[in-house]
Amino acid sequence: MFNTINYRYPWSLIRGYLYIAILIKNQFKMKNYLIVFTFLLSGLIYAQENTGAELWITFEYTPKMGMNQKFESAIAEKTKLFNKADNSAVTAVLMTGAEAENGKYERIMPRRTNDWYSQSLSTEETKFWQNNVAKYIKSGEGPYVWERIKNLSINFEETNPTKYYRSLIRVLKNGNNEDFWRYLERYTKVLSKARPDTQQGVFILSSGGNTNTVRLLTAFNNPNERQGATKDGNLRSIYNEMFGEGTWEDDFQKYNERIVEWSRPTYDFMLRPDLSTKF
Predict the structure, then answer these.
(1) Which CATH class for the 151-268 domain?
(2) pLDDT in tens, 189-244
(3) How far is CA 68 from CA 65, 87, 89, 137, 221, in A?
């Protein structure tokens, strides 16, 4: 699945990463430079070993108390000035859980390539963020770099913004995870058949955290039909019909056994078109 790692890093990658380290420090005032170094190293290795990947870069921000409106205004202006279609960014607000009460935002840079590792932000864009946005941020996380697993995604090849998305995070145990991926692959085929309008994206974390982390994202407009309208019967019945009687129960049990028990959070987000690139 993975190619042999090439440890010879081009200077453009190194230069880009040093710039990103400075940006992270300026945005979040990080004091633990080991965190930054670990991110840079893992990203450099990943960029060398996995060419042609589709990357989604995510950040999470919590504004200072009482500063949500000013934060949003600054994000809106920054997006309008710097995030055109060729440098798109999407902003969403968390709707569920305790963190949603004080306002938590996710900023996504979709469909990047490995060139992202070596391309620095423009001086103007960086200065604007530092002077106009960062001052309203209480805490920030990221960048998290996710690779989209294309053969497990449905209707995700083209940009088609929706009102909401649900994010499931699953952390896999170390070792052989064939059972996890087998179920997910089969389930994707079933979902494509039963609910062809589903918008599903499957991502694996490549740098910024535990690389055993998988993100299952479902985009939707109707909260009552998060996976789209059912067109062809019950999912479990179709699964057993396609792969053998009793297969769903066995596959689903083995799938769950490969997931770390405490790592099953679910988050619902609302897309903010006013804080996002206009597609």
Answers:
(1) alpha beta
(2) 999 999 998 999 999 999 999 999 999 999 999 887 776 666 666 899 999 999 99
(3) 7, 24, 19, 9, 25
Q: Choose among 258, 188, 257, 175: nearest CA to 216.
A: 188
DSSP secondary structure letter of residue 129: I
Q: How many Cβ atoms are within 10 Å of 58's Cβ, its own excluded?
A: 22
Statement: 11-147+269-275 belongs to CATH 3.60.10.10? no
Number of Cβ within a 10 Å radius of residue 89: 19
The rounded Cα 42 to chain-centroid distance in angstroms is 17
Q: What is the pTM of this model?
A: 0.81
Contacts of 255 (CB under 8 A, 6+ apart): 179, 180, 182, 183, 184
User: CA-based diameter of the chain, in Å?
Assistant: 61
Cβ(121)–Cβ(22) below 8 Å: no
